[in-house]
TrEMBL record:
GO biological process: ethylene-activated signaling pathway
AP2/ERF domain segment(s): 11-74
UniProt cross-references to PANTHER family, sorted A to Z: DNA-BINDING DOMAIN, ETHYLENE-RESPONSIVE TRANSCRIPTION FACTOR ERF096
CDD domains membership: AP2
Subcellular location: Nucleus
Source superkingdom: Eukaryota
GO molecular function: DNA binding; DNA-binding transcription factor activity
Keywords: DNA-binding, Nucleus, Transcription, Transcription regulation
Identification of the protein by name: AP2/ERF domain-containing protein
Length: 76
């Protein structure tokens, strides 16, 4: 989690704050030439960050031969 230098709210990767006190989550899909994928609108930044993390994990992970999820670091 990062904070703004001006003392503003905390920001998360893939989360934007709307002017009407809502948070939106988006992720870039590298398989579609960096197109934005809309993940939804949320009341809290933490909810939007969780949605981003779930989708990012599914997009960038694969199952190895022994059944574990492995994340390819080249996408992070």
């Amino acid at each position: 989690m990062e904070t703004n230098n001006d003392g503003g709210e905390a920001k998360y990767i893939g989360v934007r704050h709307r002017t009407w006190s809502k948070f939106v989550a988006e992720i870039r899909d590298t398989n579609r030439h960096g197109a934005r994928v809309w993940l939804g609108t949320y009341n809290m930044a933490e909810e939007a960050a969780k949605a981003y993390n779930m989708v990012a994990y599914k997009m960038r992970a694969y199952v190895s031969k022994d059944g574990r999820y492995v994340i390819e670091l080249k996408y992070l």
